[in-house]
């Protein structure tokens, strides 16, 4: 229906694109012709910049819908115009007029497409950066640009339908507050990251949980340090959240090394009194054997150099006393084995673990694709950093089964790349986790 509407609404734009030809073919007063062309030009400007998105949609979603609509009309007009140009080549019309008509049509259809592209670029999150590079070098090449424009159109439409369906779902279940748990959610990041306000470690997940009633807080420990040091910082944060909310306990959702930090805080620092549940996501409970291998082979001088550079950078970014090497060494199989031996689970806390895996080296970019290869000898599958065997911990463990060829990487599972993955809705995945916590009385 929308394609039919777009075709109908863009007819005046098509007529303007062929103004040089129509000027010759239509036998009416020149002044009237000029007025008609001016009206078509004004209509085209309005058509290019008017919002064509669904009324009531969220700002970015509506802009995305509008951009896809205009771009789709532009691509369709390009195809129609190509047919017109080919057909005119078999007529006896003046060659210069045909050239002028072709140039006019090219300029207007290209501007129409670029108008849609600009809106998409300002709103879309699923168009790969590679396609923007390709666009930069091909937008002015007839036929080739249509192929690139169509790629943008398909990506924008797909993202629009996905995001609009998500908003409709949230609106339908808003009153149910399916994520409004008894205890607030404390989300604990992994190694080499911080809890920044501008760039959220958890991508679009926290806002999705909040929209469905969750009360979300962050661990705010340093980016890299010993498990014991990070756990001490986390323990202080747990106390802060409890003091701020008045809640008796918190539900922790921890990714990667954050799961080790949380277990240490619970078992060694008395936080079991304040933690109701711990859900670990792709945490290397039994270590990363490929890290042991790398540390054995990489000279200490290089390790020290990287450690100093990293610590200097993240001190500037807000860490008080980061330690790259201390954090890395606590991910080794040896150190995790010692941690497990000295860190029994508390009977006061409900534990659960979740793990995913990549299905091929193409499942993720650098450095996870390299990590995938390095990890292959040490388990039946891995997420680019952690093997399946290391990530599944305790009796209440769950493996994310992804039907596609891609699989789910260490970054995908926290929405690091803000990518809509076919057959895996990462936001809904966390909604289900928190919904289950609520249903179980936590």
TrEMBL record:
Stretches that traverse the bilayer: 7-26, 32-49, 69-93, 99-122, 129-153
Matching InterPro entries: AB_hydrolase_fold (IPR029058), DUF676_lipase-like (IPR007751)
Domain DUF676: 220-292
Annotated keywords: Membrane, Transmembrane, Transmembrane helix
Pfam families named among the record's database cross-references: DUF676 (PF05057)
Protein name as catalogued: Triacylglycerol lipase
Species the sequence originates in: Ruminococcus bicirculans
């Amino acid at each position: 229906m929308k394609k039919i509407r777009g075709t109908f609404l863009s007819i005046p734009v098509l007529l303007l694109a062929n103004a040089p030809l129509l000027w010759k073919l239509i036998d009416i007063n020149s002044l009237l012709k000029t007025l008609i062309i001016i009206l078509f030009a004004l209509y085209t400007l309005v058509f290019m910049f008017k919002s064509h998105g669904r009324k009531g949609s969220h700002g970015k979603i509506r802009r995305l819908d509008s951009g896809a609509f205009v771009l789709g009309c532009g691509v369709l007009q390009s195809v129609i115009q190509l047919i017109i140009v080919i057909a005119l080549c078999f007529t006896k019309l003046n060659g210069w007029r045909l050239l002028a008509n072709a140039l006019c049509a090219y300029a207007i259809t290209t501007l129409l497409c670029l108008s849609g592209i600009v809106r998409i670029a300002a709103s879309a999150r699923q168009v790969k950066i590679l396609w923007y590079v390709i666009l930069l070098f091909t937008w002015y090449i007839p036929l080739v640009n249509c192929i690139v424009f169509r790629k943008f159109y398909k990506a924008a439409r797909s993202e629009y339908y996905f995001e609009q369906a998500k908003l409709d779902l949230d609106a339908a279940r808003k009153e149910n507050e399916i994520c409004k748990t008894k205890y607030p959610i404390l989300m604990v990041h992994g190694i080499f990251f911080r809890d920044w306000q501008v760039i959220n470690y958890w991508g679009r997940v926290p806002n999705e949980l909040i929209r469905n009633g969750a009360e979300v807080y962050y661990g705010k420990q340093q980016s890299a340090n010993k498990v014991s040091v990070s756990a001490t910082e986390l323990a202080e944060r747990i106390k802060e959240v409890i003091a701020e909310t008045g809640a008796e306990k918190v539900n922790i959702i921890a990714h990667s090394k954050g799961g080790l930090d949380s277990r240490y805080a619970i078992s060694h620092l008395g936080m079991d009194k304040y933690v109701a549940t711990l859900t670990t996501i792709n945490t290397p409970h039994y270590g990363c054997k490929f890290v042991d291998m790398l540390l054995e082979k990489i000279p200490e001088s290089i390790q020290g150099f990287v450690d100093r550079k990293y610590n200097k950078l993240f001190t500037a970014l807000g860490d008080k006393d980061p330690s790259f090497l201390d954090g890395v060494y606590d991910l080794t199989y040896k150190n995790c084995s010692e941690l497990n031996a000295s860190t029994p689970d508390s009977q006061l806390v409900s534990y659960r673990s979740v793990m995913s895996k990549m299905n091929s080296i193409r499942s993720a970019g650098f450095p996870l694709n390299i990590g995938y290869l390095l990890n292959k000898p040490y388990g039946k599958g891995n997420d680019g950093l952690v093997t399946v065997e290391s990530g599944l911990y305790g009796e209440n463990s769950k493996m994310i089964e992804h039907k596609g060829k891609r699989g789910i990487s260490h970054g995908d599972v926290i929405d690091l790349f803000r990518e809509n993955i076919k057959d895996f809705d990462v936001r809904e995945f966390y909604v289900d986790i928190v919904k289950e916590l609520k249903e179980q009385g936590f």
